[in-house]
Amino acid sequence: NAGVIQTPRHKVTGKGQEATLWCEPISGHSAVFWYRQTIVQGLEFLTYFRNQAPIDDSGMPKERFSAQMPNQSHSTLKIQSTQPQDSAVYLCASSRDSNSDYTFGSGTRLLVI
Amino acid sequence: GDSVTQTEGQVTVSESKSLIINCTYSATSIGYPNLFWYVRYPGEGLQLLLKVITAGQKGSSRGFEATYNKEATSFHLQKASVQESDSAVYYCALASNMGYKLTFGTGTSLLVDP
Questions:
Q1: pLDDT digits (tens, 9 = 90+) for A16-68
Q2: What chain B residue is nearest to A106 in terms of C-alpha separation?
Q3: Nearest to B101 among A45, A104, A107 (CB)
Q4: Is A49 exposed, middle or buried (0-12, 13-18, 19+ CB in 10 A)?
């Protein structure tokens, strides 16, 4: 069991560029979550998929951010026209179902310059 | 909305001494939330340390304990004798309503002096 795999570990983008972050959940886990961690806001919920379907995206910024889960083996978080305030650690987590304990990935540290 | 408060950003404790990290919460949903402590050791990912889903109960793991106090809306983390290997960042969290969305505190960085 390799755990939740997030790639890349680090990403540097120029302001205005697009960034795509990848997450491979644990096999057999039906729930996938994205969180963001910044010094100012701390750890914040972004979005949740169950069986690949988007269930709750209440934490996603209304513009420029989108998340997808095209198959059970990976999810992506895409940020268009990145801004310096998007710099953060983006964490993906999965669980067997929505009421089970999460397993977090190691995160992707995004720096927008 | 839900909120979790950790008042100490950084704590330094000498090895073998006792530890308490404070956590209070506010939950807007009907019923009692599930409460968690997560830990991030240096160089590692965030991992669950312990959880309690029933008010009044105590959870324990790796020598740490936390009691779900619904009257005080608190979930303080305690350990009787810390070790250098306990140096890490500790996050208190809750899940209410649907149960899947975690609300985290700001974290407490613990440094254990050898």
A1: 999 999 999 999 999 999 999 999 999 999 999 999 999 999 999 999 999 99
A2: B45
A3: A45
A4: buried
